[in-house]
């Protein structure tokens, strides 16, 4: 059975992310290694008010991860930041990223009015635009934003200058 299960975790056994760390590193990404390092040192455990970490499982194996933090760059406490989204290449294009992001967005709506993120990956850009994020041109810290206080079902982004 290939059922995908998304789980919000309160404690992360970082050793279970070894395969994702290796896969992401082989693709030239460092953010999953950074997730593990930050979690182990306590720098970011996704455990403050309004924060969460979601894991995607397939056949009891971790195949994806995505976190939500209060945005450390924002002056407002009403801005959340998407962090460390990664899906194993073996299971991409199965809707796991969208499902993880649906979980993050639902959680974010409880505490924030806006979600932001930063990516320079063109494939990620297309993905985020497809789920309703907009391009944000006026920030060093953010490349995309999603207004949570508006009904956002357009599934296509806007460019904000």
UniProtKB/TrEMBL annotation:
UniProt entry keywords in alphabetical sequence = Acyltransferase, Transferase
Spell out the Pfam families in the cross-references: Acetyltransf_1 (PF00583)
Q: Where is the N-acetyltransferase domain?
A: 4-151
Gene3D superfamilies per UniProt: 3.40.630.30
Q: What is this protein called?
A: GNAT family N-acetyltransferase
Instruction: Say which species the protein is native to.
Output: Paenibacillus radicis (ex Xue et al. 2023)
